[in-house]
Here is the input.
Amino acid sequence: MVFLIATLWLAWTTKGQNMEIKGTVTDSLAGGGLPYASLVLKGTTLRTATDEADNFTFTAPSTTGTLTVSYLGYDTKEIQITPGKSTNLHIRLVPTGIALNEIVINPQKEKYSKKENPAVTLVRHLITLRKNNDPYNHEYYQYDRYEKMIFAMNEYEPKPGKNGKEGKFDFLVDYIDTLDIGTTILPISEREKIETIYYRKNPKTEKRLVKGNHSAGVDEIFSRDGIQQFLGEALREVDIFRNDIPLFLQRFVSPLSTIGPDYYKYYLLDTLEINGQPCVDLGFVPFNSETWGFTGHLYVTLDSTFFI
Here is the structure.
């Protein structure tokens, strides 16, 4: 009888030493939730993660402790847990600030590693979010698009006519332009356009409202149909959410392709604001300069969506 009472008392005491901790994890700037954020009770094996609704719940010993909260792209935060006072938490994480050091260029071979590279970690996370962030997977979307495209011949010099006579294409001299780097070009086609695009998934509809349009180049004085048909086929709209991108009658590996981390080098270059939204500037170049690939930038929002 004494043993039974002692056992019941021990069970009641053990239960009394635990407490339930629950709460949410959100972005401190945008206020959006952070699903699958990691929470660990420091010094123990107790851990959990926020669900898709940004909530978490777990049971911890009823003693003072430290809760470590982390999420990709955000500063890790430590919160002191006090029994009876820290059972309902609203945790706000701050986007990671990226400090830039002075860039030094030297002839030595660059030491680039994918292992423990925060830029590669970010890209892998973006790849897992492609389905959610691809506009074509949403019921509706609308955006403004500005496009400027120049199709030209580099280092163009008109050939002189025979016996001092004028050549048939001497008039092209009036169209020659010089870039800032000193390269001489002959613009074949120069187009500039700003438009608003509206998309509906079901039934599938896409409308383009052109607000401004300008074109120039040598194709203005020739038949435009053939040139425009070629440009329309060669210079398709780029969709980075696909594994490959058709362009110039070739197929290029997208910087967000599932094989992207094996094909490109990625760099976290800067943090900046675009329309008031904190973003990170993610630079990328092909591993091999002789391969067909892109060199460019992706601007990724520093919130729970990581939208591009």
